[in-house]
Amino acid sequence: MLIVPDKFKDTLTARAAANAIACGWRTVRPQDSSCLLPMTDGGDGFGEVISALLDAGIHTIKTLDAAHSPITARWWRESKTAIIESAAAIYTRQSGSLGHRAGLHEHELRLRPGG
Predict the structure, then answer these.
(1) Would the N or C end of the chain have less CB density within 10 A of its end CB?
(2) 11: nearest Cα among 20, 2, 23
(3) For the whole model, what pTM was predicted?
(4) 61 and 113: one domain?
(5) Are 66 and 114 part of one and the same domain?
(6) According to the model, what pLDDT value does residue 19 have?
(7) Total number of domains constituting the chain
(8) Do residues 81 and 108 lie in contact, with contact meaning Cβ atoms separated by under 8 Å?
(9) Are residues 105 and 70 part of one domain?
(10) Region 14-38: what's the mean pLDDT?
(11) Residue 97 region by backbone torsions, left for phi larger than 0, else alpha for psi between -120 and 50, else beta
């Protein structure tokens, strides 16, 4: 059986979701073999999924999010390939971000030039 989940927003990473599904499946059908292939839609979680496929090492860097608040961002490297996930830095529902502090839904946030 091929198990290919995306993340479960704010609860499970794609890898954790794949493991949980496989665990549940094995409980009922222990004779079945399975292959786990966590997936991503390109948003948050992208770096973790792709870096696992490439066996890339994780690094961190201090930077600013969309609200100019300090954050520690993750990035991954394998040989000459760097994987940079911007979603964590610009995601407006993230605790402490501009949209969260202003009480805005992510689709209501509009940044003004220079503001």
Answers:
(1) C
(2) 20
(3) 0.67
(4) yes
(5) yes
(6) 96
(7) 2
(8) no
(9) yes
(10) 96
(11) beta
